[in-house]
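Record passed on here:
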Amino acid sequence: MHGASQKYDDLRRRLENLGSVLVAYSGGVDSTFLAFAAHACLGERTLAVLGVSATVPTSELEDARATAEGLGLRLHEVATDELADPRFQANPHDRCYYCKSELFSVLGETASAYGMEWIADGTNADDLNDHRPGRRAAAAHGVLSPLLDSGLCKDEIRLLSRDLGLPTWDKPAMACLSSRIPYGSQITPAMLERVASAEAACRSLGLRQVRVRAHGEVARVEVDSSEMERAFALRNDLAAGVKAAGFLYVAQDLEGYRSGSFDRAPAASRSQDR
């Protein structure tokens, strides 16, 4: 924890030197921690901006708003429309680049309107080990990543968040709904809504870390390894809820939840998904 404290001190120095900053805020562990730290350092010279689109579950938006209000963050919302971009709809392996390009373009306009000197996102040191095409978009738009620059990893951010009393310290990981659709399969508003409804049904049964991967009419449900036995015990209710969302068939993934599981598929499988 000592190392994390030193990194947090470094983060605060970096934020104080920015003068003013717009934080790309989602209500997740990383962006909430960054927005809180920026607000502590810069006060009203910090603006947390929440992107609203069809790729974000309504429940996540509601949670993000409630968290910002509870922490006293200065919050602004913007609409993004990555689904209007046919390159994003086509769902290539670098899909996130187009999504983040849309977001950062809108955030750039917002920063100018509010007089914010910099834009920062919640990328952390662990993200360098993952498939993150959005990093290219961040670089192209001059977006800073203070958590990464301070060397903070996910576990350290969770520990610091807990010590600071942030409600997100143990929040399950969340990614945009398009990550539930295999590369090469068209992203549509109807499929995003189906996935969101199916995951909401799973969470209503008390499952915390869950992904519903959409393979046409088949839903492949991933839950955390600690919840797999419970999910199987609830299989009848789980299947009924997922089918009510619009899927014809429901399967529980025996490997459990894996972040970015489509990115971990063999190249041959990914090409078949296309």
User: Anything to note?
Assistant: Confidence is low (pLDDT under 50) at residues 266-274. The radius of gyration is 19 Å. Strands lie at 21-25, 46-52, 75-79, 118-120, 210-215, 218-223, 249-252.
